[in-house]
Specification:
Keywords: Leucine-rich repeat, Repeat, Signal. Residues 1-28 form the signal peptide. The radius of gyration is 20 Å and the shape is globular. With 184 residues, the chain is α/β, with parallel strands linked by helices. The chain has one domain (2-161): Leucine-rich repeat, LRR (right-handed beta-alpha superhelix). β1 and β2 form a beta hairpin. It has 1 helix and 11 strands. Helices cover 14% and strands 16% of the residues.
């Protein structure tokens, strides 16, 4: 009986290690060009001369750093399936276009950094679904237009940084629903 228990435990450990290895291997393509920490929960792709966001991104990632690259656009559902992602840093790129639905599925994201890019307008509902977002940093872009409803649904947002842009007009409804906003 004792031999069967030990054999079962050994088999279970072997199976779990195999699953962990396969999951890490499946998600490790990004780790060939970026630096991955803590079994890919933190991925640093900063300063890699990237022109697009590398794929696939490990589904267990919590922190993703993509600053100091040449990324010019964020496509629809680019981060789909990254339910654990809490912090996304995309500063100092050439981002001019953010497609509607680009941040779909990032239900746990609480920090989004998009400063020092070439964003000229914030479209309606571009941040849709980011219910846990607390800090949104959009400074030092070329933002001239923010469409009504751009911040709709960001009920947990407490920090919104828009300095060093070209905003000339702010609609009174622009910040409607941002009940937790403390710093603008």
């Amino acid at each position: 009986m004792f031999h069967h228990v030990v054999s079962f435990r050994r088999s279970l450990v072997l199976i779990l290690c195999t699953i962990l290895f396969l999951e890490t291997q499946a998600d490790s393509d990004i780790c060939k060009i970026c630096t991955c920490y803590s079994l890919t929960t933190s991925v640093n792709c900063a300063n890699r001369n990237l022109q697009s966001i590398p794929q696939p991104i490990p589904t267990n990632v919590e922190y993703l750093y993509l600053s100091y690259n040449k990324i010019s656009r964020i496509e629809k559902e680019m981060f789909q399936g990254l339910h654990n992602l809490e912090k996304l840093v995309l500063g100092t790129n050439n981002i001019a276009t953010i497609k509607e639905g680009a941040f779909t599925g990032l239900s746990n994201l609480n920090y989004l950094y998009l400063s020092y890019n070439k964003i000229s307008r914030i479209e309606k509902e571009i941040f849709q679904g980011l219910h846990n977002l607390e800090k949104l940093v959009l400074g030092a872009n070329n933002i001239a237009t923010i469409k009504e409803g751009a911040f709709t649904g960001l009920s947990n947002l407490n920090y919104l940084y828009l300095s060093y842009n070209k905003i000339s007009r702010i609609e009174k409804e622009m910040f409607q629903g941002l009940h937790n906003l403390e710093k603008l």
